[in-house]
Amino acid sequence: MSKENPPALPARPTAPPPAPRARSAGPPPVSYVVDTRTGRLGQVMDRHAGYLQLRPPQGGVEWDCPPEHTRPASEAETLRARVARLNAESRWGF
Q1: CA-to-CA distance for 41 and 88, rounded, in angstroms?
Q2: For a disulfide at 32, which of 70, 73, 88, 89, Cβ 3.0-4.6 Å?
């Protein structure tokens, strides 16, 4: 009995890669902005229905803010926010 190599399987067609999603204008997620209406610093969590969803750096309840009522946080504000977030995480054992 002779052993023959089995016939090669035909190559499966591959789907093209998905197209990149269009992003709306505004700050990228995981950035910090200041709500100019209240002066509150918030981390951008998401965008929904034309609003930015912001959360306090230490955690807490998110609030909605129109993008036109925000400004980028300064380097000092961003550093302060990151330290506050890390301190809050260390208190809760994350």
Answers
A1: 16
A2: 73
The token pair that represents 21 in the structure block: 């999603």
From the CB of residue 11, how many other CB atoms can be counted at a distance below 10 Å? 6
Q: For residue 72, what are the β-bridge partners?
A: 33
User: Would the pTM of this model clear 0.70, i.e. be above it?
Assistant: no
Q: How many CA atoms lie within 13 A of 10 on its CB side?
A: 3
Residue closest to 70 by CA, chosen among 40, 50, 45, 46: 40
Contact 64, 81 (CB under 8 A): no
Q: What is the pLDDT of residue 58?
A: 82
Give per-residue pLDDT as tens, 12-58.
666 666 666 555 556 555 589 999 999 999 999 999 999 999 999 88
